[in-house]
Amino acid sequence: MATFSERMKALRKEKDITLEELSEILGTTKATLSRYENNLRIPNVDFIDELANFFNVSTDYLLGRTDIKNPSDEISNAVEDDPELIEFWNELKEREDLQLLFKQTKNLSPKDIKQIIRIIKAIEDEEDMLDQ
To answer: Which ranges carry the HTH cro/C1-type domain (predicted)?
Structure first.
């Protein structure tokens, strides 16, 4: 697995931004970011969280604990063969009230993920019918 410094540098390069640009965006110095990328300094938890949010990746990915950038990507892959679930998932993944659920999928099989999305859809459908 990659290290934090390797992931940070790779994500910055993927976005095609310089250390200077990133420092302005995050309100820190270019020197501080350079130290992080060169593994000369360890960032605090708040910075790691801010960086993960900026790059739209999980903190686990940023810290090198997983190769899955974002738990929602894993769910998307699990439901990609079911058009109805894909459509529902695309609406669902924007909901902040379900973010914790997405983080919990990292140890589930695609089959289990698909089943959970189906259950959530059934609950949502039932609530929609009751509202009518």
So the answer is: 8-62
Task: Quote the tokens at residue 32.
Answer: 């501080």
Could you say which of 62, 86, 103 is where a domain stops? 62
pLDDT in tens, the chain (132 residues): 789 999 999 999 999 999 999 999 999 999 999 999 999 999 999 999 999 989 989 898 999 988 888 777 778 888 889 888 888 888 887 777 776 666 666 667 888 888 888 888 888 888 888 777
Q: Which long-range contacts (CB under 8 A, 24 or more apart) does 97-104 make?
A: 102/71, 102/72, 102/75, 103/58, 103/71
Task: Calculate the alpha carbon distances from 35 to 6, 8, 40, 79, 129 in Å.
Answer: 12, 11, 5, 40, 55
pTM of the prediction?
Answer: 0.65
How many domains does the chain contain in total?
2
The CATH number linked to 35 is 1.10.260.40
Q: Which residue range is the domain that position 8 belongs to?
A: 4-62
